[in-house]
């Protein structure tokens, strides 16, 4: 568990990093996933809200793309992110008259919502970036209603070593080059390889979700097992 000082340092580092890449963030996501990111977000939203629901949350919304996918399946969606620049970028995409999405600045480790506020919750490529994974999962559990569903889209650390080595080679070597070519920033995308190297396998993340209190935790693997969507129920 991170100390308060470590948590504040981690949050500030993430704010700075994502603030630097916000202008090219969407384009870079599409390039480095070979255009598959939009389909993964649609699947994540569908797993969280298989039927139309009333309220939904996108924690660490970034530029809001997952929140927009979720808004097709919910009456009201809140997209929350620690980066003010990301929230501004997401808000700028709102069409005139669209009232079912609200973007706000906030911390996923201390969600500014009462208990049992949401029918569904999602995260997209966020769990590797929180200072305290256990606390983030507990917060998501807290704000979901009983029977509410959580779906988490995340890079996957393969348990099969040759495949894991291939994934890390791509992320450590190719992605920073793409970051320089597309986003003009290599350091932010070097962070991907270090964060993935320290992250969990799909099975380990599944157990973390069970430990947080979730039930019926399942996951699906995509893109040569390099991406996973975990689904769970409160």
Can you walk me through this structure?
- The chain has nine helices and seven strands.
- The chain is an alpha/beta fold and 234 residues long.
- The longest helix is centred in the last third of the chain and has 23 residues.
- The model has no long low-confidence stretch (mean pLDDT 84).
Briefly say what this structure is:
The protein is built from 9 helices and 7 strands. It is of the alpha/beta class and 234 residues long.
Structural class: alpha/beta
Share in β-strands:
15-25%
Number of H- or I-type helical stretches: 9
**How many strands, what sense, and barrel or not for the largest sheet?**
7 strands, mixed
Gross morphology is: globular
What is the average per-residue confidence, as pLDDT, rounded to a whole number?
84
Q: In angstroms, what separates the terminal alpha carbons? A: 23 Å
What proportion of the residues is helical, as a percent range?
A: 40-55%
Multimeric status of the protein: single chain
Low-pLDDT segments = none
Cα gyration radius (Å): 17 Å
Number of strands: 7
Spatial sequence of strands, sheet with the most strands: 3-2-1-4-5-7-6
Order of helices and strands: HHHEHEHEEHEHHHEE
Which descriptors apply to this entry?
globular, alpha/beta, 234 residues, single chain, seven-stranded mixed β-sheet
